[in-house]
Amino acid sequence: MKYTVLVVEDEYEQRRAVIERVNWEAAGFEVVGEAENGVEALDIIETLEPDLILTDIKMPMISGLELAKRVRELRPATQMVILSGYDSFEYAREAINYNIISYLLKPISSDELSRELFTIKKRMDEKLGSVIARPESDTEKQLHRMKINTFLLPLMLGSNEEQPDERELARRAEELGIIKENTKPHYCVLVSKFKNNGVSYTGKEHTDFLDAVLNKYFYAVSFTVYGRAVTLIVYDNEGDISSVLDLPLKEVVQTAKKMLLQTCTIGISREFSELSGCSAAYFQAVTARRYTKDGAGEVRF
């Protein structure tokens, strides 16, 4: 897989040297754009959608770390490489929070950077490849997943059978590992559909993909219902649901486009605090995804 790159450097000659003298193609990269500062970079990343941004840490207007922070808010699937003259633990520790996949010390020659790109490419392959579904070989995990699906499906579809009371639902969810003991979790439901060249198809590989991305942020479990991927989100922190989900769902949409070559639209329910509210939340999410007018974006409330 080839990754696209945006190079950000305020000194023109150094920027051109990085673009022209580094052997990007050999390592599996293609430079698709350049910017002379972080502000310009932020203006063009939504258009270029780079997989990787290489930036100097010290620039006018905003620093490389501030750029990385803002890029993570806009494109959480984009990785960052920082070039820095600061051999500081504090800088390196802060870098961990902002999708910075490599922190390189200057001066660094074109040959050294060319060699380093192979390591960066391997890290990106591993990181992005981890969201691609692989066959589950652990029988015990398969059975546990089936138990979770069997528990949640009637709750989502509003089974005609009489449901246990809320205390019993919470006990069962705790037993299955959906919620933690002595916590007051918040829930919401997502309904997602994937399309390839206008053809809609959503299968197990998509539910595995959703869980792989979303479980980095909070507990999530997905399964298919009537050709849709349905996800129960469980989180502890209070706050506006759109703020809680903003970064994770951006990463879902962007990574689906890059790794699956598919578009993904997601409907989101209101937040709720009792598992008996799953059915109403499921239909809220279906309605949000289906009936929101075109142009509303991939993530729909």
Short description:
With 301 residues, the chain is an alpha/beta fold. It is built from 11 helices and 11 strands.
Annotation field: number of helices = 11
**Helix percent band:** 40-55%
Largest sheet: 6 strands, mixed
**If you consult CATH, what is the topology of the largest domain?**
Alpha-Beta Plaits
Mean pLDDT, to the nearest integer, reads 88
CATH superfamily of the largest domain: Reverse transcriptase/Diguanylate cyclase domain
Rg (C-alpha, Å): 22 Å
Class inferred from helices and paired strands:
alpha/beta
Second-tier CATH architecture of the largest domain: 2-Layer Sandwich
In total, the number of domains comes to 2
- CATH class of the largest domain, anyone? Alpha Beta
Q: Shape from CA axes? A: elongated
Query: How many beta-strand segments?
Result: 11
Amino-to-carboxy terminus distance: 34 Å
The oligomeric state is single chain
Question: H/E element string?
Answer: EHHEHEHEHEHHHEEHEEHEHE
User: Spans with pLDDT under 50 lasting ≥5 residues?
Assistant: none
Primary descriptors:
single chain; alpha/beta; six-stranded mixed sheet; five-stranded parallel sheet
What's the helix and strand layout?
Blueprint: E1 3-8, H1 12-21, H2 24-27, E2 29-35, H3 38-48, E3 52-56, H4 64-74, E4 79-84, H5 89-95, E5 100-105, H6 110-129, H7 139-157, H8 166-175, E6 186-196, E7 199-200, H9 204-214, E8 219-225, E9 228-235, H10 241-260, E10 263-268, H11 278-291, E11 299-300
Parallel strand pairs: 1-2, 1-3, 3-4, 4-5, 10-11
Antiparallel strand pairs: 6-7, 6-9, 6-10, 8-9
Helix pairs in contact: 3-4, 7-11, 9-10
